[in-house]
């Protein structure tokens, strides 16, 4: 899992569930600095033994290789291209490994702008949840100039147990959107089918025990549905972020000329769950929403 040879300081931009987990993990391996716009996120890193920075300027001065994990394209644009962003703070030779789930066009713009200032950009993505981020067990995708990918590969191997290298900038974001369409689709169809089983009178635990060994199972079903059955909807991946990713995928598909009719239906169903107040719950809360749509007694949701 761990790569031999990466010794450089790393600055982590964005200390949410994924970025915070990465920062805590990296702090045990190399000099690591972290920044987030939220003071409580910076304080959490400090309590965990990491080195938090009070500003992006401080982080950029302390490190020359940065890993960003931010919630959306607007946050990436602010951190990278804003008036006090990396575009103005960075120096020639600095490297950004951008891991947020944003569109291929957005990462291409960031790369072009930073490269014009002499910096280098890796188009990256990760799969896995907060637990994998905090233990270096993610799957990491990376695209960009081959020499640059070789330079940062030891860092990527530190972050993840599986590393996949792609081609031009934009490809890692594209593959991440493809993966998230599959993941969100798996969970939604499982929730719909599982609710039918519940309506047929099969107890939830018994139904899960059968389906978790049957041909229709998926990794997300096996890992996430036990929590949903218990009513534990604390977000590992918030439902609202799933809606954002599906909309990114639909926009990308329109540009590519690839129809995604099933994804359009998925987006509307997840959006309906958001409008019902489930946006900050884990995306497996779609099971609780299906129970509600089916007229079943609500579970006692636990969100923390």
Textual characterization of the structure:
This protein has helices at residues 17-27, 39-47, 56-62, 73-81, 86-89, 104-115, 130-133, 146-159, 171-199, 204-211, 219-230, 239-256, 261-278, 286-293; strands at residues 10-13, 32-35, 51-52, 65-68, 95-98, 120-127, 138-143, 160-165. By secondary structure, it is an alpha/beta fold. It folds into two domains: 10-167, NAD(P)-binding Rossmann-like Domain (Rossmann fold, 3-Layer(aba) Sandwich), CATH 3.40.50.720; 174-293, N-(1-d-carboxylethyl)-l-norvaline Dehydrogenase, domain 2 (Orthogonal Bundle). Strands 3-2-1-4-5-6-7-8 form an eight-stranded mixed β-sheet, with helices on both faces. α8 (146-159) links the parallel β7 and β8. α9 crosses α12 and α12 (239-256) packs antiparallel against α13. The longest helix is centred in the middle third of the chain and has 29 residues, at 171-199. It is globular and about 65 Å long. The protein starts with 9 loop residues before the first strand and ends in an 11-residue tail after the last helix.
């Amino acid at each position: 899992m761990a790569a031999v040879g990466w010794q450089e300081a790393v600055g982590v931009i964005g200390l949410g569930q994924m970025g915070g987990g990465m920062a805590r993990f990296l702090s045990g391996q190399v000099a690591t600095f972290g920044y987030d716009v939220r003071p409580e996120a910076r304080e959490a890193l400090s309590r965990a033994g990491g080195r938090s920075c009070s500003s992006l300027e401080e982080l950029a001065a302390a490190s020359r290789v940065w890993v960003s994990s931010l919630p959306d394209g607007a946050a990436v644009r602010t951190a990278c291209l804003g008036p006090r962003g990396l575009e103005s703070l960075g120096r020639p030779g600095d490297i950004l490994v951008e891991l947020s789930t944003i569109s291929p066009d957005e990462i291409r713009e960031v790369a072009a702008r930073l490269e014009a200032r002499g910096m280098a950009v890796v188009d990256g993505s990760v799969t896995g949840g907060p637990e994998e981020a905090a233990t270096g067990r993610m799957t990491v995708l990376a695209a960009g100039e081959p020499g640059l990918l070789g330079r940062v590969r030891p860092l990527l191997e530190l972050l993840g147990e599986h590393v996949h290298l792609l081609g031009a900038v934009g490809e890692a974001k594209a593959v991440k959107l493809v993966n998230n369409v599959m993941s969100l689709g798996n969970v939604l169809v499982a929730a719909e089918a599982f609710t039918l089983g519940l309506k047929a009178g099969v107890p939830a635990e018994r139904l899960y025990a059968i389906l978790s060994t049957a041909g229709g199972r998926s990794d997300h079903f096996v890992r996430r549905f036990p929590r949903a059955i218990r009513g534990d909807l604390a977000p590992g991946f918030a439902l609202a972020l799933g809606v954002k990713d599906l909309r990114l995928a639909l926009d990308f598909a329109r540009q590519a000329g690839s129809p995604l009719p099933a994804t359009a239906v998925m987006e509307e169903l997840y959006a309906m769950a958001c409008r019902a107040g489930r946006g900050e719950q884990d995306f497996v809360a779609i099971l609780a929403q299906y129970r509600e749509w089916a007229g079943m007694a609500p579970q006692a949701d636990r969100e923390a």
